[in-house]
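Re: Re: token formats

Sure, here are both.
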Amino acid sequence: MLEKTVTSLDGAFQWLSRLALLNMLWLLTSLAGLVAAGLFPATSAMLAVTRKWLMEGTEFPTIKTYFRQVKQDFWKANLIGWILTAAAGLLYFNFEILLQWNAEFSIIVTAAFYFIVFLFLLVCVNIFPLFVHYEAGIKTLFKNAFIIGLARLPMTLAILVILSGMVYFSVVLPAGFLFFSGSLVSYTVMKLMLWSLKKIDVGISETEQVEYSG
């Protein structure tokens, strides 16, 4: 009994150490790129590492794998991130117009705007997990993120709840942000995504060859 407890505690501490290390790598890489150039490749690399943990186990060098992924995905991840940022800026601009001229717009226009925001969020929460899982072009990634976001709506909503929880957790307990916020969310999101994509992968593999990220 004691041996089993010690083994369980040792395994838990090992996972906490891995998550803390990955979270620090994510934060440092984001800051090194002054956020604008570092956040998106750092996020894709973090997701790629957690994907590898879930699919292949943990017997590989985390730091080396992480930085190899940052280098490999730097430009593509930033392009995806900048497109999303530009779209978010455009949506925010329209939101400000709605606030200032609310009486001038019908409820249909306002509802349509919030629906578009919702669709944008679907793409945002799905595109980076898909990016590290499949080999695909930018256009295909955005299309798949949109389609899968709608097709797997419960999963997408669960991811949104997790991300909201991370924000709340980071405000209430800032120390947790330094050690676990990003990596823990990355692990949970990637686990949900891989579980959801299993059926899709099986369906695709029956009709055509699928290319996965390394």
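Second one below.
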Amino acid sequence: MTHADRPPASPSQPPSRTPIQAVVFDVGGVLLDWNPRYLYRTLLADEAEVERFLAQVCTPEWNAAQDAGRTWAEGVAELTARFPEHRDLIHAYDERWAEMVAGTLEETVAVLDTLRAAGVPTYALTNFSAEKWTVACEEWPFLADLDGAVVSGVERVSKPDPAIYRLLLDRHDLAADSTFYTDDVPVNVHAARSVGLRAEVFLDGSTLRGQLKAAGLPV
């Protein structure tokens, strides 16, 4: 799971007549309010220090290696060898990971609950470390109750690689043109569309509900 400044949302796809049979959610930034700043604002003196640390030490690229399958033990060891003066702060990224999640994005979870109550299959497709996915499912059990999840750290392939979208479709026997996907990172949405998914950029739960209604779903 990564967190970075994102480019503007891309235009919506033109409507399709194919009924939507399943809905797939990204997790960080869509279902969970994840941001490493939530933790490091409690550990560092001011916002400038937080931004410097996350830009120079525990960078998005370093975190993405765990999302791609590297273990946290390996990632922490590599980084503490390079920045021994920040040992405790680096370990905190692993050991206090749950404190980076402010909670669920309630509007989106309400949409998810409505879909499930209507019998619509729901899935997750997420860049997430395998170890932290286990933690997340324990902390927020609704994640474990989805009909399925494709997690980059488990599969060792990350969005926006088209292979991870094809894996989702193949594993769960989903037809791309009848599967709706929402993600807050536009490049991931473009990649989903490239393999035929009905994908839209996530802005907030209310917008998502409108997108799903426009696609003919009972939300």
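The two ends are 27 Å apart (CA to CA). Confidence is low (pLDDT under 50) at residues 3-11.
- S.
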